[in-house]
């Protein structure tokens, strides 16, 4: 039965529908693994097994009558803690929200359940979903399944860790600064950050009744296979009921095209945002595989903007959005601090603080600059099908719970600012682009390294399609030895 732990959701669904295993048996299998391993990982932090067992019994009864709910019929899965799941709290890692219980599922969870998925728990996050590590005072710290001294990433760190350790069949997370892509990279699984607004985010908020789509932020799947990303996106993508009155989703796909039909760009590093040599080498490894498969590879062409300028625009918009989540008292204190800054202070910290309390005039200027970036990307993708690049500068790093201002990271022994890590996620996130992370294997220390496949807006099925082709070429999920 151990092969079940690391099977894809697609394979698990087939086993249930072929009656090789029942939904109840499969759920109990994952629950047993959770009971055995989650204590040391702390990936799954909310348990809804009682409801899940009842749902599994219903799935088996319906299957016996010939009724299949959908492509995920009976597949056990978990969801990121920040999603509303009826009867559970969404604390976003904040002790003040420990009683923040919701009584209706998020829209994405409704759609997954309607397709047969059986949700049996929720997974860990950092406070306010705002870190590359997943720890908080509500649930504690999540460890990386490949090395417990390392973090599993953030903010969907519990999601990726649960998948990599074989505790769940499928996951869904969210991403504003790499929060799907960073954990997928750190834990060696697949992850997809969709085009902005492609998936309806209703029910992914710390407060009840929220309807506005947050800037930059998206929700999306994490999985052990690229096929599972496609299945999830097919289920979740599409306009909300208001937009659906006039628009229908019609996204391009690879179709009959092969890798040999594609033109693909390579961006392995940036002067002011370096990545480790081993990360560059994995970008080269993917580039070589694509070249060997006949793809036309271009390593020099870039969109028509400066990377540093894009990052400044991203920072401004990101921090304005993140600050909108602050309690009133904290925000008021921040406003007073910004008033005390010297007008000549153009440090990174000062830019962050000013972005957090941005006036509408300043935000609008940054937004206009962002839309110019979108058009530069559009021009680039008029010539290219996809772009391969890093998602993080290093493999998973050791737990570091010091105050943010005291943290740094080492990139090939070069000490760099901690939040510089967000550059590669923000480069594409600020422009609303889809990005699929694939695993490329383990480094010499036994830690996973992933790369991201970036495409044009609404090119999600193309980037996932390229991921599927690369998975067939050997870029596949590798289970951690300790959990086999």
Radius of gyration: 21 Å
CATH architecture grouping of the largest domain: Alpha-Beta Complex
* Rounded mean pLDDT score: 97
CATH topology of the largest domain: Amidase signature (AS) enzymes
According to CATH, the homologous superfamily of the largest domain is Amidase signature (AS) domain
Secondary-structure topology with pairs:
Blueprint: H1 9-17, H2 23-41, E1 44-47, H3 49-64, E2 76-80, E3 88-89, E4 101-102, H4 107-114, E5 118-123, E6 135-136, E7 140-141, E8 143-144, E9 147-151, H5 157-164, E10 171-175, H6 181-187, E11 190-193, E12 218-223, H7 226-236, H8 241-244, E13 263-266, H9 277-292, E14 296-298, H10 307-323, H11 328-339, H12 348-356, H13 360-380, E15 386-389, E16 408-411, E17 414-417, H14 423-429, E18 435-442, E19 448-454, H15 460-472
Helix pairs in contact: 2-3, 5-6, 7-15, 10-12, 10-13, 10-14, 11-12
TL;DR of this structure?
The protein is an alpha+beta fold and 484 residues long.
Give structural notes.
This protein has 15 helices and 19 strands. It has about 475 residues and is an alpha+beta fold. Strand 6 (about 135) and strand 7 (about 140) form a beta hairpin. Helix 10 (about 305-325) crosses helix 13 (about 360-380). It is globular and about 70 Å long.
